[in-house]
Every structure is written in C-alpha cells, then in structure tokens.
Amino acid sequence: MSLLNKFLYSVAGLLLVLALLMAFSSGRAILSSFEAIETRIFEQNMNRFDAHLREKKEDLLHSATAIASHDPTSIQNFFATGQFHILPIQLAALFTASADTTRGYRTDDAGHKTPFSSSFSGDLARSMRRLYGGGQNAFLAPGNALSPISGLLRIDEEDFVVGIAPVPGANASDGPRSFVIVGETLEKFLASVFHVRGEDFQLLDLEKNPSLLSPEELSQLTNNSERIDVTLVSDKEADVYYAFTDILGQTNKLFARSKAKRLVYGEIVKSFANRYIWIILLSTSTLTLVLVIFDKLVLSRLKKLQKITDDISSKWRVNLRIPLEGDDEITCLSRSFNTMLKALDELISNVPDPLILSEPNGAILLANASTRELLGYSEETDLVKLPFSSVFIEKEKTTGPGDDLLKNEGNVFEAALRRHDGSLIPVEIHQETLTFGNNAYTLSIARDLTERKIMETRLVKIAFYDAQTGLPNRHYFLDELEKELRNICRIPYYTFCVAFVNMDKFKLVNEQLGPRGADQVIVKVAERISGIIAGFASAFRLSGDEFGIIIRGTNSKEYLRSLLQRIQHLLNIPISIDGKTVFPSASFGVVLDIQASNSSAQILSLGADALIEGKKRGIGTITFLTAEEGVEESKSRRQYNLLTFQASMQKALSSSEFVAYFQPIYQLSSSRLAGFEALARWSHPKYGLLAPGTFIPQAEETGLITQIDKTIIYQAILAAKKWSATYPGISFFLSANASGASFKDPGFVSFVCDRIREEALDPRYFVLEVTEGIFIDNLEAANEKLNLLREFGVKIALDDFGTGYSSLQYMSQLPINYIKIDKSFIDQLFLSEKNSLMVRSIINMAHDLKFDVVAEGVENQAQVHWLEENNALKGQGYFFSCPISLAEAEDLLADAKIFEDLDF
Question: In the predicted model, is pLDDT for residue 639 greater than 60?
Fold first, then answer.
C-alpha cells in the first residue's frame, strides 16, 4: 500500500472514530438525561403511590374516628350487625381498654365476614399494647389521653393499613373505654394501586425473608434516607423500591418493589443503534466518495507520474514526459519533473563521449547521441534492447610489443565497439555498476582511441619493427626471448628453440645489385621465411642479413632439420632485381635445450657460435648447439667427433669403401637414356650403405671431401671408359660432382685431365658438375680453371642452380654447358603461378645462353609433362630411377634398343 493510501485511510479511519466517539458521547449524554428523567418519573409514580397510601391511611383513620364517635350502643350494634362491610375495609375490630376482649371480623372480596381466629386476636391485642406502651391495663391508666393513629400494622404475620381511634369514656379523665380498628391488607392495597398503573409489584418483607435482596441491594436500601429508590436493572426495566416508614411497632424492613417498564429508554437505545449504523454507512459512503474523487483528481495522476518514473528507473527512458493536466500542485510538480527530465536528457545527449547504460543481462537501455554517431545508428531505438555484447568486443590478451602502453586496471580497460557496418573501433572503457533499489545497471563510457592507436601503432612500428622488411626487430626478438624464458618457469614441460639465419656471401649481392637491390633481396628473403613458418613460429630481423626464428613446442633435431631444409629450398629460389637474377643461400645456427637458467644474451652468443661453426663447413649449412652443454663443450665434442670421423673416413678411403652410384638422366621428349650422374656412397662395413648427407658435411669440415671427390670422379672416368669401349658410337655422358673445397685444390684440374688422359677416355663423355660456391670467393680464378677443363674437352654443369647467388650477368661469362635446376624448384612447381613462371624463366634463359637444361628431383608424371611442354630437354629423379650400382647401370646400357637413337 502506498504512503498516500495509508495517509488517506488513516485520516478516514480517524474521522470515522471521531464521529463515532462524538455520536457515542452525545448519545451517552442524552441517555443519561433520559435515565435521569425516567428515574424522576419512576420516583414521581412511586410518590403518587405514597400519596395513595397516605390517603388510604387518612380514610381509614376517619372511618375509625367516625365509628368511635358514636355512643357505645351504636358502636356495639355496628359490630354486632356487621354493618362495617359497607365501608371499603377488610378489617374491623373493637377492643376494650384492657385489650383483652376483641370483637372483630375480616371480610373477603365478596363481602363475607370471617371472625378473628384466636391467634389473630391474640396477635392483634399484643400489637395494640405495644402501640400504647403499657401492660394489660395500660389503656386505663388515668390521664392517658390517647389520640387516633394510622399506619401499617403487622397482625399474625400479615401486614395491614389501619386506622385506630379510641372510644372516649364518660369523663375525659377516665380514659378510653375501647378502641376501634379498621384496616385493609397492604397487599390488596398495593395490587389495586399498581393494577391501575399497569405495573407489577412485589412486597418485600426482609424481616421474614432476608434473602430476597443481595447484601449490596439491602445495604443500598437501608442506608438510603429517601423512602423511594430507583435501580435501573436493564435497558428494558427498572426496579422502583418504596420503603414503608410508618410501620407501627416495628423496624423499617418492609419494602414494595415495582417492575417498571423502560419503554422510552429502549426506544432511545434502538434509535441510537440505528444512528450508529447510519453514521457508519454515511461515513463509509462519504469516504468512498472522497476516495473516488481523490483518486480521480489526485491518485490517478500520481499513478501516471509513478508509471513514468518506474519506466525511467527500470528502462531509463529519459525522453519520456509527464502529461500536464490543469493548473494545480500536481501539474506544477509534473512540470518540474519534466524540466528535470529534459535537463537530464540533454545532459546525457550532450556528453561528448559515447555513453551506454545496460542491464546486468547485457540489454542496452540507453545510448546517447555520441554513441549513435560513433556506431553509425540513426535512431536511439536501433540500439535499445540490443545485447551489449553485440556492440562490445573485449580486448584479447596479446603478447605483442607495446601491449603494456595502457594497463587495464579495475573499471578502466581497453576494448572495441562494433559499428553498424561491422567494423571495429578501439575504445577505452570506463565502467561502473549502478544500483537502484533491487536493480543493478552497468554504465559504460567509451573514449575513441582510433587516433591514439594509430600513434601507438606508429610508435610500436618504429620501436619494435624493421622498417624495411616489416618483421619484428632485434628489440622485439630480445623481448620475446625473455617471455619464452619466463614461460619455461611458468608452464610445465614448456620448450622452445631458436634458429639464427645468416645469408651466405651476401657481400656479393651488394656488389652485384648495389645497396638498393640488396635491400630488395632481404625483403624477398623475409617474405619467404615468414610465409613458410606462419602459424607455429615467429621470424625477426636481427641485423642487415641476419634473421632469428623462435620455434615453440619442439626440440626435435630431426623435425627442425626438415623444417630448416624446407626454408633453405624456398630461399634458394632465384630472385630477379632490375633484370639481374641472384640465387640466395643461407646458413642456420640452431640453439636447442634452452633452460630457464639461460639468458637472452647467452642464446644470442650460442647462435652466433653455431653460425660461425657452420660457416667453416661451407654455405647452406645447418648447425645445432645445445644451450645445456655450452659453446666450449660443444666445440670440444664436435672436434672429438670430427677427429674420430676423420680417422674413419681415411680408413674408408684406403679401403675403397667410397663407391659411385649412378642415377640415370633421361631425354624428356623420348624417355631415352641420356647419361648418368655419379653420386658418392659410403659402403660402411658396420652401418651398410650410407647416403651423402651422413658424411659429406663432416668430410667438408675435415678437408677429406677433395679425396672423396677424386675417388668418385676416377670411378666415373673408369665407368665411362668401359661403357664407351663396350658400346662405341652410342651418345651418352657421365657426370661427377666437384665441391668448392676440391676446386680450391691447386692440383684438382690437373687430376681430372690426367685421369681422362691416362684412361684414354674421350672427354666428351665426361661432365664435371660444380656449384656456384666455387666462384663466389674468386670468380676470376674459378673461371680460369673451368676454361682449362673446357679446353681439354670436359663439359661443365652448374649444379643446384638457383640455391646460391648466381647472377645471370656473370653466368653468361662462365664456360658452362649445362644448368641443373635444383630439386626445390621442381617441388614448388605447382604450388603457385609464381613458381612455375620462375622455372620457365630459367629454362628460357638457359636456351638463350645456349645452355642445356637438366631438371633434378623429378618425381611424377605431371612434372615430366610440364617440363617437356616448356622445353626442358633432360631430367633425373626418382620418377625415372633412384641411384643404382655399377652393375645395374651396365644392364641399362646393355639394352641396345634404349640407346640406338640416343642423340647427344
């Protein structure tokens, strides 16, 4: 119940109570007045009874005196004849002066007389003696002049109203001769009197029966000095007592009680009961009418005001206004309330920052004009009732640089708001919880951070990113290293490793392309590294031609070697800058088993040592170091391993364990055998046949690679001699590889020419395969040696074309006959149009320079078909055959059908 209703009901109840109290008090006063009037009437009625009684006593006294005034003879005749019945009396008696002789009679209602009984006569005589105060002769006492008397006399337990008169003697001094008594029973007299008044009566003789009244009633009556007492028994009747005071010879204990009907008082009480009912009905009707009028004029309007305030407090519709009715106080209140609402609405609307009020479940209740403008909504209703989550995007936790420029604390944090078109706007949110009664709301004030984010992004780019490649820089790299080291402490079983990438012979790129062209090469290299590791590792540019890669979740050397080899193959794809083509190459130093005790500086130092160790073995190396062992221990271990390995390889060389295996090379257009490439294999007595990858890097590091090259070249020369002698006139060639270390041997060219000359082999059957590394350090010296070989008749093939820094500008000056396209290009042939375009360019370039082309690593028919369509003449790979032994190669040559149309 509202306070207003409580007030109204309280006032109405108070007025009703006051009305009832007034009615009751006035009614009580009126009833008290009526009681007094009734009491007075009852007293007057009883006074009339008293007057009747006195009158009756006077009549009886006159009757007795009249009889007593006759002469004795007449008196005697009067009693003898019974003439007294003509008088309205019930008792007539004649006593002698001595009161011992009685002549008397009683009469009934029919007038029959009855003589006195002896007991009645005796009691009457005794009563007379008490009255006149003497003994038996008291009446005869001389000088005893007795006067007539009247009153109540009890005779034989019966009450009479009597008149007594003495009959005088002859002389007045002689005293009376006799007494005349006439009377009427008191009960009959009462009956006759009250019968006329229509009232019942009761004679109360308390001397005979004291229990007729209670002690309180008896005490009230006996202590009352008045003869008449009125007791209001109930609303319908009253007891009117009359005390008989003139009882002859007795105490005052005789009362007459009349049962008077309170007819007027009963009607008054009924009228007052009806009055109360009418007062209640009238008050209720008046109250109802007042409430209806009040509800119409006040409450209904207040309810409208309350409804609007409820809508505002629950739905926050501050644009609502209260209708104005009339020109009273409520209208003034409504006008003031509307003014306050308008001020609040304008205040919220004019807040320069977006303001959103939402419910705990996320429904938007209110959004100001700045919010609508920022989010692209035309009307407020377009936003109201939308889930707050539909426009609010909480900022995800990141680990990027500059993430702590604004720290989120308490109710201030960064987030994003989604515009109507779906785009996101970065904002700073100030959020508070507002509580109104039992309702809780969330107030969010946003500040557009677009400009600041642009500036922060610029600052982060400047501080943490390389401006040239767009990769994170050295500062970012060191920061990430520290985070990864903390992750090792924080996350159980967490692991990561770091690979350092350094471009091989990058100074040649600067010489060939200049600083601008070299920068473009670095950009391409960065793009390739980032593209292949996206999603599981992070790449950084540490310095000019050095990169860093953080690889998370693994320490597997086999997996890392495979991953880095894929990166190497991708990096080896040629890059064309301003019409000049280079073939990048990179070496890798990998730090494994990084522990929480390591620091970022130690990791950098280990990576540098790994790269230095790898560079000693040549270009394109992958070197692993463990952080747990440390650089010095790793160096010692590698030196020990190299020493033992060197001893094993020297023994293998002396025992002729290094043998040549031959991989066929086919004409792509006719699928006919064109030749073989001799590849080194180590026939280890314990481990079986070992591939080049298991011993070539160590052979290069120990310096035994030249002896291995010479061994395989010599075996290839012997095989070519044998096959040319066995199958004269058949066109084929047999190639063998020469490493960069072999080409640095001053006697290497002489060794090749001398072996060919000694075995009397036609040089046209032999092809020497070299890599770009032989002329990177000294192009002029390498060119001179190659010219000597070519003049001798040996053909030169440029192996692994595209994996180094070959420049087409100086390649045209080299004395080469073949270009062997590296397997990495063939593997990537169908991955993108860019890769196929690159291979096509290499083939066309080779033809333009009059070079023959051999595609390495051909593994499927699709590759064969594409190469054939694009004029690549020859190919080798597992699609045709894996490397085979000398005997298997001779079996291929033995098939004359295969070689009959060979054209070399």
Answer: no
